[in-house]
Amino acid sequence: MNRSKLSWAVLAASAAGVIASISVASQATGAEEPVAPKKMTLEQARRTVSMLNDLYVNSVVVTHSTYVKDPGTPAAAVVARKVFEAMAEKGWPKTRWLSTTGRQFNPDAKPKDQFEKDAVVALKKGQARFERVENGQLRVATLIPLVDKSCQMCHTKDKVGDPIGGLSYTIDLIGKK
Amino acid sequence: MRNARLAVAVAGGVALPALLFTTVLAGNPATAAPPAPVRLELEEARRTVRLMNDIYVTGVLVTHDMYVKDPGNPAAVSWGKQVIRQIRAKGWPDAHIFDTTGRPLNPENNPQNPFEKAAVAAFKSGKSSYEEVSAESYRYATSIRMTDESCLTCHVRAKVGDLVGGISYLAPLKPARR
């Protein structure tokens, strides 16, 4: 597949994502204001991240295997991003895609602060989970390696097993400033 | 190894690529015993189940909007069921999608136990959620209504706003402290 086809695929995926996000936001949240972030103890927050990571990673795998047959189909990661945004609006833990390669499809997946920059260094070494407690929050980054050949439909420059990215979570903690 | 994985994939009704993907991520052989169910305090069980419910419902809506353009594509609810199976296998609270109309598209969607039958009765009396707490477990159910006309692609006999089903959750609780 050539570069221009890929660009169109990414563009189409982004456009579809925006449309989906608008219609889902109106269905799922109505006219409600964003909810204040839900706070947890450190132990609960760690367990919640483990549950979320299992749920999000498995969701992406199922989405990809069920619906994504060629690079013209919206990427499973785009669906996940729409879900992350809707969850954050409801006050649930914030989640973002994090690229470790420096050549992410979406600029939003670049590391955004010192925690994410440090996390990228750890994930690139193959560390499965990197975490830190700072500013009253639990920050966690989890590694998602390039898993099999089906990923290379879009990730054409990476090999199976490469530590190309992950997810970055932020949860507010009870009683911490 | 490949044969063993395939056998598990067929038995679990899970696509082989998904299984390989999960296996690599978890770092476990596909033949390993599933982890024991996670037991939570009541407050955390309530919150976790609501978080899962928000993700499943939003995930089904986004998936439907992005991929399901006609009845020939797999329904978004089948996406939800596959994810639920994989999350159950990892020991997190279980979920079951059930019908409230008495004419489910799939017979396995009939209410499966007294809790789900009680939830159906609660939904029909106007409640949007229902819960039961025992010493061992927390059960929660939310209703599903037809949110807009896109649902009617497959739910041909329903109208927008109709109650058509629910999702029930089962979270095992930690033993109470004395």
Account of the 3D structure:
The complex is a heterodimer of chains A (177) and B (178). By secondary structure, chain A is of the alpha+beta class. Chain A is built from 4 helices and 4 strands. In chain A, a hairpin with a 2-residue loop joins strand 2 (129-134) and strand 3 (137-144). In chain A, helix 2 runs antiparallel to helix 3 (76-89). In chain A, 42% of the residues are buried. With 178 residues, chain B is of the alpha+beta class. Chain B has helices spanning 2-12, 16-26, 42-67, 76-89, 114-124, and strands spanning 94-99, 129-133, 137-145, 163-172. In chain B, strands 1-4-3-2 form a 4-stranded antiparallel β-sheet. In chain B, a hairpin with a 3-residue loop joins strand 2 and strand 3. In chain B, helix 3 (42-67) packs antiparallel against helix 4. The radius of gyration of chain B is 18 Å and the shape is globular. The chains are: A alpha+beta (177), B alpha+beta (178).
What is the gyration radius of chain A calculated from CA atoms?
17 Å
Structural class of chain B: alpha+beta
Sheet having the most strands of chain A: 4 strands, antiparallel
Secondary-structure content class of chain A: alpha+beta
Counting copies of identical and different chains, the oligomeric state is heterodimer
Helix/strand order of chain A: HHHEHEEE
- How many strand segments of chain B? 4
For the biggest β-sheet of chain A, the strand order reads 1-4-3-2
- Helical amount among residues of chain B, as a percent range? 40-55%
For the biggest β-sheet of chain B, the strand order reads 1-4-3-2
Most extensive interface between two protein chains, with residue counts: A-B, 44 and 39 residues
The number of E-state strands of chain A comes to 4
Helix-strand pattern of chain B: HHHHEHEEE
Number of helices of chain A: 4
The shape of chain B, in one word, is: globular
Indicate the mean pLDDT of chain A.
84
The number of helical segments of chain B is 5
Q: Give the distance, in angstroms, between the N- and C-terminal Cα atoms of chain B.
A: 48 Å
